[in-house]
Amino acid sequence: MAKTVTITDTPAPAVQPYLDHHGRVASSLPGGDLSWLGNLRAEGIARFRKQGFPGARVEAWRYTNLRPLEKVAFEPAPAGGGPSAAVSVDLLPTVMPAGQPSHRLVFVDGAFRDDLSSIGTLPEGAVVTSLGHALNSHADLLERHLGRVGVTDSNPFQALNTAFLADGVVVHLPKGVAVAEPIEVVFIGTGGVSEKPTMHHPRILVVAEANSEATLVEHHLGQGVGTYFANHVTEIVAGEGARLHHYKVQRESTLAFHMATVTADLAKDASYDNFVLTMGGRLSRNEIKPVLNGTGVECRLSGAYMVNGQQHCDTTTVIDHAQPHCTSREVYKGVIDGTAKAVFQGKIIVRPDAQKTDGYQLNRALLLSDTAEIDSKPELEIYADDVKCSHGATAGELDDDQLFYLRARGIDLESARNLLIAAFLADAIEEVRIDTVREAFQGMVTGWLKTQRA
Fold it and tell me: According to the lineage, what is the superkingdom (predicted)?
């Protein structure tokens, strides 16, 4: 039986609707017969009630105002997702060439759609499935790892996701197993079947044992014009020598709120690279927090963001060097137009015993209008004395001389601007190590540029 958490304080007004919803749906969430899962959800809602939505006085949220999110009355998305008839498997995004083997899981408003998904032939012992299915077939694996990586009392969205935990993705790679084809996960947000804004809270769990390898590609896209709140959490456990490539493109609808938290525990000699391409959403935040828990770990975080109109995009990273002889690299580049705003907060922590750390961090932003804004806050928190760490942040406009050079050679203004913007973002996209994914992301950048004004 799940334990009961008793709290006597009065929650903030913006928090109460979520508590009410949780009270109504908690007993009907999947895995209700698993006491450990009930306890996990109870702890999640208790943490969320205590934390509430952070305001500007919380340093980590100083530049991202959550009032637009707090003002919307969201309801849990209906079971089975939104209007399924509008979703066509032929129109779903992919990075795989036509006719090539693939593994794809599709979720509509947070609910797994088996009819739209397809899992190819996997190596012996490998598991790629929905969390709902894993609760029946791999409950012991989930009990050992779910809700165990990077849990803090400073991330209410992580706690909220845990409280409503119902579906998502489970990837388990046994020792020495490599999955050759990318594992693609498509999250479609519709806003629900009615005019009421909806919310969903998918979870991804990746357990990669020693010397295993895989590529995980997330596609997040909006369909329709509804308002919705997509609150994602990803937990990664990478064993000794494991290699995980983790790539994501976020193309939510212009009325959507997208919050994403990634936590990773990286063992000795593990390699983890993460790239996020942000294009959509009214308000979005990607919070990525890997812990380098063994010697010889290589961690690479990178991304590109392109926002316009009144969009707000927040990228927050914390790389925790807990052990010596590890390397980390961060390269983020963004293009901001209209009255849009972007935030970059990047912190590298070097613990006292983490000697011989090599850390590098770069954020560059291109402002395409006088009203565009970037708030950049790079940080180094170093407690060891034998390290090599550096960071940098710049913001500027398109170079008039370069524009003139291209125009003088017969290139029209719009094409010249797009060439310079694409070249600016190319350095970040080159960080993607898998050719098919990199080419797909480059195509998405080209498509975005074609929709923008000259």
Answer: Bacteria
Distance, in Å, from the CA atom of 148 to the CA atom of 4, rounded to the nearest integer, reads 20
* 3 state SS of 336: strand
- Give which of 42, 38, 41, 65 is closest to 54, Cα–Cα: 65
Indicate whether 305 pLDDT > 80: yes
Structure token pair of residue 335: 């293009």
- In the chain, what are the domain boundaries? 16-293
Give the whole-angstrom CA distance, residue 124 versus residue 328: 32
Question: How far are the Cα atoms of 92, 244, 273 from residue 434, in angstroms, in the given order?
Answer: 20, 11, 11
- What is the structure's pLDDT at 85? 43
What does the block give as tokens for 339?
């009255």
Q: For the segment 195-233, what is each residue's pLDDT rounded down to a tens digit? A: 789 999 999 999 999 999 999 999 999 987 789 999 999
The residues that bridge with 186 in the sheet, in sequence order, are 106, 219
SS3 266: strand
Structure tokens at 304: 């590109």
Query: Which of 52, 256, 76 lies closest to 166, judged by CA?
Result: 76
The distance in angstroms from the start CA to the end CA of the chain is 61
Distance of CA 6 to the CA centre of its chain: 32
Judged by average pLDDT, the poorest of 5-19, 135-149, 318-332 is: 5-19
Residues 6+ apart with CB under 8 A from 101: 120, 121, 181
Find residue 54's DSSP bridge partners. Answer: none
Buried b (16+ CB within 10 A) or exposed e, 155-183: bbbbbbbbbbbbbbbbbbbbeebebebbb
CA distances from 226 to 195, 306, 347 (A): 7, 22, 35
Name the percent of the chain lying above pLDDT 90: 86
Strand partners of residue 216:
183, 246
Question: In the predicted model, what is the mean pLDDT of the chain?
Answer: 93
Helix (H, G, I), strand (E, B) or coil at 398: coil
pLDDT tens, residue by residue, 354-409: 999 999 999 999 999 999 999 999 999 999 999 999 999 999 999 999 999 999 99
Other beta carbons within 10 Å of 213: 17
